[in-house]
Each structure stands twice: as C-alpha cells, then as structure tokens.
Design a protein that fits this description.
Blueprint lengths: L2 H6 L2 H8 L6 H9 L6 H12 L4 H8 L14 H9 L8 H18 L12 H11 L4 H23 L2
The structure holds 1-(2,5-dioxo-2,5-dihydro-1H-imidazol-4-yl)urea.
The site of 1-(2,5-dioxo-2,5-dihydro-1H-imidazol-4-yl)urea has 15 residues, from helix 6.
C-alpha cells in the first residue's frame, strides 16, 4: 500500500488494508476517517495519537488476537501470520527457554488475569523472558500501562510496515 492509494481508496478497502494492525475496529475506522494525510509521518503521528484513547477494555479486546509468547496464533488470518514472524526469535528449539516462558506466562496470567503482551520484534527470547519476569513485580495499574504501551508499539510497527 502506498500513501496516495490509501488516501484515495474506498473506505472499505482502506480499512481492510490496515485492520490486521490491531483488533480494534474503532481505531481502524477513526484512522481511515482522518484521511487524507499529506505525509507518511503525519499518518503515523495521527495513528499514534489515536492509540492514546485506548483503555483497559480496548486492551482486553485487542488481546483476543494475540497468541501467548512462545505459542502459535490460532487461525490463518493475516494477524496470525504476523504474530508468527514477530515471534520467530522465540519459536526456536530452545527447550529450557520455552519451558521458562511457559511458566512465566502461567504466573503472569494468574497474577494479572490476561495474556502477557510484549512487542516481540527486535527482542530475543532471553530478553522477552527478562521483561516477563520484571513485569511480574508491577502493580496491576503499572502493568496495565505497560501492556497498553506494548500494544501501541506492535500496532504502529505493523502500520509502518504496510507503507514501507
Ligand atoms: C505478540 C504477538 O503476537 N506479536 C508480538 O509482538 N507479541 N504476542 C504477545 N503475547 O506478546
């Protein structure tokens, strides 16, 4: 997708081109409704500003599309495929790391009641495990903010890649 085409596309096509960034249709619709954008930078800035409205309900909804770290996404959609490539560092055959992540995920879900979310791209499995163990010590409120920031990171990274 390039910016000119995104600016000129029918609403439905424009929404479809970005909907795999995050499972939040309101965000997708708001970004498309804000067209046209004069530069890619303006588009990314506006997209980022719109993520600031996300709250705990948005986090819950968006997490439905994110598999656990170290697990494959269910389904065959574009978002599932992206998750797989983002997590390629983790899906290696390192059995002790995989076991530690499984234990960490279970502890996290027990403590916070939702799946541990982290921008996996650009992080090694080891780094992800360290972050998981650090975040287990957060308060519920701190952790909700961290998880939302990770969701924003993942979403904007995916958006940037669409226009690359
Ligand atoms: C993911 C995912 O699917 N992509 C990513 O960067 N992180 N999942 C997760 N539970 O953190």
């Amino acid at each position: 997708m390039n910016l000119t085409r995104f600016n000129q596309a029918e609403v439905e096509e424009a929404q479809h081109s970005i909907e795999h960034c995050v499972a939040l249709p309101d965000w997708t619709a708001a970004l498309v409704a804000a067209r046209p954008f004069s530069t890619l930078d303006a588009l990314l800035k506006h997209a980022g500003a719109l993520t600031q409205a996300w709250d705990s309900a948005a986090l819950t909804r968006a997490l439905s599309a994110h598999p656990r770290i170290g697990e494959r996404a269910a389904g065959s959609g574009k978002e599932a495929a992206l998750s797989g490539s983002e997590q390629s560092q983790v899906n290696s055959a390192d059995a002790p790391l995989a076991a530690a992540l499984r234990a960490g995920n279970a502890a996290y879900e027990q403590r916070f009641g939702r799946v541990f979310l982290i921008r996996a791209k650009g992080r090694s499995g080891e780094q992800i495990l360290n972050e998981l163990q650090r975040r287990l010590h957060n308060s519920a409120q701190q952790e909700e903010q961290e998880a939302l920031d990770q969701l924003r990171d993942i979403t904007l990274l995916r958006l940037e890649e669409i226009f690359r």
